Amino acid sequence: MRYFNSNGVSIAYIDVPAHEGEGDPVLLIHGFASSHAVNWVNTLWVKTLTREGYRVIAFDNRGHGQSDKLYDPEAYHSYRMAEDAVRLLDHLEIEQADVMGYSMGARITAHMALAAPERMRSAMLGGLGIHLIDGVGLPLGIADAMEVRSLDELTDPMQRMFRAFAEQNGSDLKALAACIRGSRQALTKEEVASITLPTLVSVGTNDDVAGSGPELVKLLPNATSLDIPGRDHNLAVGDKVHKQGVLEFLSKRP
């Protein structure tokens, strides 16, 4: 692991060179309660991309993994989290990167596309469809689920799923509760329409968290939709159809 200072917040990251050659940089932004390792290394995304000749940079979002834990919800505004991504590119002296986010990471990627489009060659939004506009992320009840004493106290399936996932990853539950409460920013249709970057929207056909991918694509001026057949929100991440679709998208974008 490496670390850099993002305006006072220590952010952990990896920088993996392409197997051969210099390699265009791809920046990966993970989802809620996950980490760069769980979202991108364990699912073999890093191996897949580096084998195809890309340089891969992945980091732990603030409040996650080995990055600093913060307990003020305002510290997790989507634009602030996008600023961490931009500062990492600054730190590595990378002018432009293809940026792929999953779930909360896709929301951060979309905010980055608004705030710093000149730093992005393309945007890949995984696990997030029309809920980028008509949703504000996971239900607030997920924050409550992080604060109960035990998983046994929860009966709601989604609350149980995210609490168990967070515990499995050794997460700081208090930091995650603050993250849920602070990162609830939707975009307007007008904001989405202003994102002119080549964009890929990838959503599992059984995903009940993301909202429709094709509906979001209709609002983006330069976007492609990728259905990931038979996969829910969790299983779509590392699916082979997802990987193949991303590699094809990257090979065709300008």
Could you characterize the architecture of this molecule?
Helix content is 38%, strand content 19%. The chain has 254 residues and is of the alpha/beta class. The protein has an 8-stranded mixed beta sheet with strand order 1-2-4-3-5-6-7-8, sandwiched between helices. Strand 1 and strand 2 (9-16) form a beta hairpin.
Overview features:
254 residues; alpha/beta; eight-stranded mixed beta sheet
Q: Give the oligomeric state.
A: single chain
Indicate the percent of residues in helices. Answer: 25-40%
Biggest sheet strand order reads: 1-2-4-3-5-6-7-8
Class computed from helices, strands and strand pairing: alpha/beta
Report how far the terminal alpha carbons are from each other. Answer: 32 Å
Please summarize what this structure is.
With 254 residues, the chain is α/β, with parallel strands linked by helices. Helix content is 38%, strand content 19%. It has helices at 36-41, 45-51, 78-91, 104-115, 131-134, 141-147, 157-168, 173-182, 189-193, 213-219, 240-252, and strands at residues 2-6, 9-16, 25-29, 55-59, 97-102, 120-126, 199-204, 223-228.
